[in-house]
């Protein structure tokens, strides 16, 4: 027979499962959550940083592909990150990585630049001449074909400064969530001030990224964007429950810890208690 404390815990756990059962379908809920935050490329441009001398008519900034011209549907959230090297034309993309909601890499390719590389920026890009030569490395036009097969007009594209990634990809997409905007510094007079992904990862996820001598890892950066938005989703959902339900504090806290692990499954080996 269960002791009083165990009976209470069992009752609480049953209440937890009942009240938070909607989280079992969190993939759909996560997409819906992001859909409310997603903006068009034009809207994102109001926050976006423009490189010196930026001119949309410049050939290196001309959009080559647009998901609005594609066919099919793929209503999921994907995170995108690019690594770039400096050429005589400016920064050009040399690696493209896409991860899904589980933080699994679904696309990863090295990319040939249009002009000769004059600075690999290895300490930031992680790209070396040897990597590109050993490959496999694709032409940007081939990467465009791959991305159009993967990213549809109803796909939510996530990134940190994702406008920069789209610019070097010469790609247009109109369903965007940018972590640099979602987690922007609102304490400054200029509320569009962006915080680095490295800083956000440490503050919200308690992990260190971009700390390798070999440079950044586009897969790690893309996964971190997903993790950040899942934590934001978790906090928003639990705040709604806190406001609308009479669930006891201990049960709510256990639910928070339990579903933190669910939401971050595949992204992080541990979940952190959020107060």
From TrEMBL:
Q: Which residues form the Exonuclease domain?
A: 76-238
Task: Say yes or no: keyword Nucleus present.
Answer: yes
Q: Which keywords are on file for this protein?
A: Exonuclease, Hydrolase, Nuclease, Nucleus
| GO terms, biological process | negative regulation of gene expression
Main subcellular location of this protein, as a coarse class: nucleus
Q: Name any GO cellular component annotation.
A: nucleus
* UniProt-annotated location(s): Nucleus
Q: Name one GO molecular function term.
A: exonuclease activity
Q: Which protein family is it in?
A: Belongs to the REXO1/REXO3 family.
The protein's name is: Exonuclease domain-containing protein
